[in-house]
Amino acid sequence: MKKIIVNIAHNQSRAAILEDGRLIEFYVEKPTEKLVGNIYIGKVVNVLPGMQAAFVDIGIGRNAFLYVGDAININENEKGKVLPNINEVLKEGQKLIVQVKKEPFGTKGPRVTAQISLPGRYLVYMPNGSHIGVSKKITDDEERNRLRTLGDSLRQEQESLIIRTKATEASDEQLKRDIEFLRGLWLSTTEQSKKINTPSLIYKDLDLVARLVRDLLTEDVLQFVIDDGFEYRKIKEMIKHSAPEFVERLSLYTDKQHIFDAYDIQAEIDKATRRKIWLKSGGYIIIDKTEALTVIDVNTGKYIGHSRLEDTVLKTNLEAAVEIARQLRLRDIGGIIIIDFIDMENEDNRLKILEVLEEELKKDSTKSKVLGLTQLGLVEITRKKVRQSLDSVLLRSCPMCDGTGRVISEDEIYRKIEREIASFKEHTSIKSLIIEVHPLMVPYFKGTNQDNLQYLEKISDKLIYIKGNSNLHFHHYNIQFM
C-alpha cells in the first residue's frame, strides 16, 4: 500500500510517495518554475527548415522549441506517415496556441506542442483529433470495450479521449462529468486567448498537491498526509467533489517534529543525491550522469555469497535490478540509460535479470523501455524525460571542479608553488616567507614529505613556513613575504 506525504514550505511544495514504507517517488515544485501542462498563446519567431522545427515566443524569457510533428494533428492511424515541411505548417509572426510538454533543461528552452491535452481524473481530453484510447494497464477486454464505447458516445466531433486506468473505478455519470468539465475548461481557455496580448499564459496547470489528488489518489493509497492547514482544507474540498470515497484517507499533520523526519523521508532524500547506493546484501550500484546518458554500474562489494560465484552474482544483480528501477523513479532520470550488470555465464540468469527489471519498471508511471543487451553485455533502457531530474533540482555543479567531481592533485599544486618560488631567488632579497594552503595540503610538506619543503627552501634560498588555512579552496594558495 502507498502513502502520500506532503510538506508545504515557503515558496516550495514537496511530496513523497511511499510504497510499503519505502520512498519510491519524490517531487519538488516551486510555483513560479513549473511549466509542463501550461498553455500559452505564442508567436513564431524563427522557422528552421534544417531542423524541421520552429522557435516560439511564449513570454517566459526564452523561446520554446516546436517540432513539426508537434505542430500538426496526427491521429493514431497516421503515425509513421511522412511529415510535411515545417515551412508549409508555420510562418514567422504566426500566432498559435501551444502547451508545454517538457520543462527547460540546461540552456535548452521548453518543448511545446500544438496538440493540446487536458487531463482529468478519469480521462484526458484533446480538443483535436477523432480517436479513443484506453490505458494499456486496463487488461480486461470486456472492460476496455465498455470504456471505448462509452468514450465514443461522450465525445463530440473533432475531439479525442484517452481513458485513464482510474476509469475502471468510475461510473458512467462520473466520466460524463469529467469530459463536460474539461470541455468547458478548453472553451473558456480559447475565449481567454482572444482577449489578451501575445505572448501570454492562458491556462496554468494544477499545482503539485492538486495533481497528486487528480493523478495518484487511488484505491492503493492508504494515507494522504499534509502539514499545511490551508492546503489541507483546499484539497479536502477538491476530494469531496471529485472522489468523496477518499476523504477519510486525507489527514492534517500537526506534530512538532518535521513531517519528513516523522516518516523517515529526509534520510532517503539525502541518499538519493549520492553517487553510490548500497544494497542490503552488501553489493552496491554507482550512478554517473553525463550530458548524453546515464551509466549505472553494479558491483558485489562486500557480498561474497555462500556457494558458487554464479549464485552470488545472480543474487547481487537481481537485487540491483529492483533498486535501479526504484532509483530511476526516485531520481526521475530520463533519456538513455546504460546498465553494466556483473557478468554472468548462464544465459537463463541474464534473461531473468531483464525480466525482473522490466517487471519493476511497469510500476513506473513514466514510460520506459528495456531495449535488451548490447554486444558488450550492457543493458539499454530509454525513459521519457519530462521534468528535471532530482539532482538537477536539489544539487548544483561544484564551483571548484565545474561538475567533473575531480580537482587538481596535491602533486600538481606543489609543482605550481615550486615554479612560482623558483623565480623569487633572483627577484627579492627577503629571506623568509609563508605559504598558506588548504589544511589537506599541509601534510605534503611535513612528516615523511619534509623533503618537499626542504627542496623549496633550497631553490628559493629562503626560510619557508607552511600554514593551513581552511578558508582557501583546495587548489588555491597564498605566498606572503616576511
From TrEMBL:
Record Pfam families: RNase_E_G, RNase_E_G_Thio
Please state every residue range assigned to the domain named S1 motif. 35-115
A Gene Ontology molecular function term of the record: hydrolase activity
CDD domains, alphabetically?
S1_RNase_E
Report the locations given in the UniProt record. Cytoplasm
Q: Which Gene3D superfamilies match?
A: Nucleic acid-binding proteins, Ribonuclease E, catalytic domain
Major location (coarse): cytoplasm
Q: Sorted alphabetically, which SUPFAM superfamilies does this protein's record hold? A: Nucleic acid-binding proteins
Which GO terms of type biological process are on file?
rRNA processing; tRNA processing
Q: Which InterPro entries does the annotation name?
A: NA-bd_OB-fold, RNA-bd_AU-1/RNase_E/G, RNase_E/G, RNase_E_G_thioredoxin-like, S1_domain
The Swiss-Prot or TrEMBL record lists the needed cofactor(s) as: Mg(2+)
Record-level GO cellular component terms: cytoplasm
User: What is stated as this protein's family in its record?
Assistant: Belongs to the RNase E/G family. RNase G subfamily.
| UniProt name for this protein | Ribonuclease G
